[in-house]
Design brief:
single chain; 39% helix
Length: 233
């Protein structure tokens, strides 16, 4: 009975430079086993030429031949006894120490939709001794919470009562706001300013429009706004 033995890449040796492929790596390692120095040199010359054909864009890189030869030596683990072409300098690559893996921050926030910054602000407010300053700081925290809630939950409406209750929950009951306190909303940075529609006589720059204030009682249509001239009869 014939048994087919399949070899997978996971069982093979690791590739030093994956951009060149496994075949190039095996050819370079095979050249190391050749007994004659001249033969090894000629074979590696052919391998370098093959690499240049596979990567024609590398010809536009400065000192591309020297970089290819350095890559060949790196794949060969700097264990090659050949005659290098003139002008080629091999610089052994310095192994860089891998940085330590940073631990993922673990926080146990009760109301995560406000973010960790709210909890940091609450912790700072708890150490404020002056009750008046603490109350002002609590109002600022509430305004920020209201902004964060509206930013990430645009489809839901939040009331001041909800913000007050959440502040009390996050602070363990140590920070509270009065029942009749109004939490003002912070306007985000670079947010467009809203023009009040209650006073149309004021323009964007704060000045009165040409048709604002007292109008003349003349029948001259030139003094009327354009949109009034175009209205249907």
């Amino acid at each position: 009975m014939n048994v087919l033995h399949q070899e997978y890449n996971s069982t093979k040796k690791d590739i030093t430079l994956p951009e060149y492929g496994r075949i190039i790596q095996e050819m370079i390692r095979h050249c190391k086993t050749l007994p004659d120095k001249e033969i090894r040199t000629s074979h590696l010359m052919a391998v370098v030429e093959l690499i240049q054909q596979m990567n024609p864009h590398s010809r536009n890189v400065e000192n591309y031949k020297e970089k290819i030869w350095n890559h060949v030596y790196e794949i060969a683990n700097y264990d090659l006894d050949i005659n290098l072409p003139e002008g080629i300098v091999i610089a052994k690559k310095i192994e860089r120490k891998k940085p330590e893996i940073l631990p993922y921050p673990k926080t146990e926030t009760k109301l995560r939709h406000y973010g960790n910054n709210v909890m940091r602000m609450i912790n700072k407010a708890l150490v404020v001794e002056d009750p008046e300053k603490r109350e002002i700081y609590t109002h600022i925290i509430g305004a920020y919470m209201k902004l964060a809630f509206r930013t990430w939950n645009k489809e839901h409406f939040v009331t001041d009562e909800v913000i007050k209750s959440d502040i009390k929950t996050l602070s363990g009951g140590r920070l509270t706001l009065e029942e009749d306190a109004v939490i003002e909303t912070i306007r985000p940075i670079n947010a467009p300013r809203r023009i009040s529609t209650l006073n149309p006589e004021r323009s964007r720059n704060g000045k009165r429009n040409n048709y604002g204030g007292k109008r003349n009682n003349t029948n001259n249509n030139s003094n009327r706004p354009k949109w009034r001239n175009n209205r249907p009869n």
